[in-house]
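Quiz preparation item.
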């Protein structure tokens, strides 16, 4: 089965890339310092940021960090359960 989250990122990245490719010929990048040129530059930068963020999610760069945070949250939940049950000894863990 296809992972829906990854599929969505591929679709959204493709749409952003398509918009960028379609708009490049219409954007005015010739007159340095003019308002249309500044707008075009900012628009291209934003489109590239959107594409980069989806590519980052697709490649799963933060997967290890996500697993580590999940482990820490489980430990905190366990410690809270121990505190509620009356066992005051809390484990210390390193960051």
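Solution:
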């Amino acid at each position: 089965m296809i992972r829906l989250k990854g599929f969505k990122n591929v679709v959204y990245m493709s749409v952003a890339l398509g918009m960028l490719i379609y708009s490049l010929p219409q954007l005015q990048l010739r007159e340095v310092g003019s308002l249309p040129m500044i707008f075009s530059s900012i628009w291209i930068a934003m489109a590239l940021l959107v594409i980069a963020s989806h590519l980052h999610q697709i490649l799963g760069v933060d997967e290890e960090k996500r697993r580590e945070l999940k482990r820490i949250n489980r430990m905190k939940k366990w410690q809270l359960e121990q505190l509620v049950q009356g066992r005051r000894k809390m484990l210390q863990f390193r960051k």
